[in-house]
Design brief:
Helices cover 44% and strands 21% of the residues. The protein has 57 residues and is of the alpha+beta class.
């Protein structure tokens, strides 16, 4: 499993923006270079999680 942590000021991102940021990060990191079979990349994307932290201080 790949875990990506994103830190943002509290209240800056709503739920839809957090989800979009997560999708964009995964797509950017997994790339589309065609170096692996698409089924392998789909599996890697499915095992990748993005956590958005909104620290209070």
């Amino acid at each position: 499993m790949i875990l990506i942590e994103l830190f943002a000021p509290a209240g800056v991102l709503d739920q839809a923006q957090r989800e979009e940021a997560g999708r964009r990060l995964i797509d950017a990191l997994m790339g589309t270079g065609g170096t692996h079979a698409e089924a392998v990349m789909d599996s890697a994307r499915a095992l990748t999680q993005v956590v958005v932290h909104e620290p209070a201080a």
